[in-house]
Structures are given as structure tokens and as C-alpha cells.
């Protein structure tokens, strides 16, 4: 009896210590990088510019977190090579205490679903033909399996990341719910609206609609998600600069990094809640949303 009481006491103490343990600290540095569109040289160049890799594309970012917001395929001929680069960086970053979060974009989903409208013709040749490429992007293929294991939405600290943007319509699902819905739709077991124009992989409203309306919707969505800022890709900024709206509560990182869109290298760096845009010419501070 005494031994049982001692065991229960020890168990209660351990549970109490676990409950009192603080939440893990946010990563010291988060870097968000937008659409790469099948351009391996541009991908390596922008990762190197952001201090995440060396000039050969090997991880040097230490404990940093890289969030790549999707659209790594199509337009250029290096879709496979860019995916393989991110595959390797996931492993190298983890070994160094860092992390790579690669999100699905609409172009990855298009490839998974057999929509090849934007596939570069040279890429099909380099795969050894259409059937070989189709097999690679299938659910059983190496590229398809890797893509299907990834999310469409992520949250790091108080920032939500998505390819297109999480609209107020879908935000109440929460990050976990959104990713579950995306997976279900990809498996053709759930509603397909999550993969449509208002879903997080396609939505452009935050960067194209009137800002007064945008900010009201964004506030609603961020509140539902328990976040203060949203970082998106998908809508290319012809200026080649990071887009900023709603006092910094929305940042757009699709600056046209690939050669197809002009080769405009840029990234967003987050240190705590402080945001900055990274360019080959240097770092520029970005506005930060006021605390709620």
C-alpha cells in the first residue's frame, strides 16, 4: 500500500511539472519565401540571399525556420529539382536544429490532379516522357507522396502562412481543420470547395480587393485563427517588392523570384513579431500590426 501511494505521488509530481512547463519558445528567426516555379537556380539564389543556405544550396541557417509558401512547380523546367532541394533541406535543417515548412500551392495540387496546363515542355522531356512524369507525381510516386504529406496552411507564433490566403469563409476551421479538409479533398473524400478560388491555395482577395474591405475581412480571419499576421504568395507583385497591407497584418511574398516572372529575389524575415523584407540590396523594415 505504501509503495502504491509513493508511486501515485511521484506520478502526480511528474504530471504537475509537465503542466507547469512553459510553451516552447518561437524559433529565433523565421524566413518566408514565395513562389519558385520550377527554377532551381533562382531557388538556391534566394535561399542563399536570405542566409539559409550556402551558394550550393546546403543548409547554413542553423535554428532558423524556412516557410516556403508553395508553387514550386510549373513555369520553369526544374520542378523535380526544386522539390528534391526542399526534400534535402528538410533533413539538413532538422539536423541543425532548424526547420523547413514547405506548403502546398495551387500548382502542386494541379500537378497532383493531372492538370498540366503550366508544365514546361522541357520538363516532360527531362522526365523521359509524360508517363514517367505522371508516375512521379502520382500518390505512389516519390514526388506525389512527398507533396501529399505536406500542409496547405501553417502557423508559427502569431503568423499564419498560406499560398493564396485564408479567407474569412474558411478561417473558422482553424489551421488543423483547414489542412484536414485539404487532405480530404485531395483524396476525393470531402468537399472540393477548399481547393477552389476562395480556398487557401487560390484566394487572391487580400491582395487584389479594395484595402478597406480587405482589412475588415483579414481582421475577422486572423481573429478566428488566433493570429496577428498573415503571409501569402500566389499573387505576383510586378514591382518585385514584398506587398504590405493593413498596417503590416498582411504581407505578400510572391515577388516573381523565378526567371519566368523576372527573377526578383526577396524574402520576409520575422524575428519575434518584427518583420523585415530581405533583398539583394539589403534589409528593409516592414510595419508590424498593433497588438490586439
Q: Please state the average pLDDT score.
A: 92
What order do the SSEs take from the amino end to the carboxyl end, as H and E? HEHEHEHHHHEEHHHEEEEEE
**Oligomeric state of shown chains:** single chain
State the end-to-end CA separation. Answer: 53 Å
Q: Helicity range of the residues?
A: 25-40%
Q: Remind me, CATH topology?
A: Purple Acid Phosphatase, chain A, domain 2
| CATH homologous superfamily caption | Metallo-dependent phosphatases
Number of separate structural domains: 1
**CATH architecture descriptor:** 4-Layer Sandwich
Question: Helix/strand-derived class?
Answer: alpha/beta
Shape: globular
Largest sheet: 6 strands, mixed
Q: Would you give an account of this structure?
A:
It is built from ten helices and eleven strands. By secondary structure, the chain is an alpha/beta fold. The protein has a single domain (27-285), classed as Purple Acid Phosphatase, chain A, domain 2 (4-Layer Sandwich). The strands form two sheets. It has a six-stranded mixed beta sheet with strand order 3-2-1-9-10-11. The longest helix is centred in the N-terminal third of the chain and has 19 residues, at 2-20. The protein starts with a helix and ends in a 7-residue tail after the last strand. The relative contact order is 0.14. Mean pLDDT is 92; it is low at 1-23.
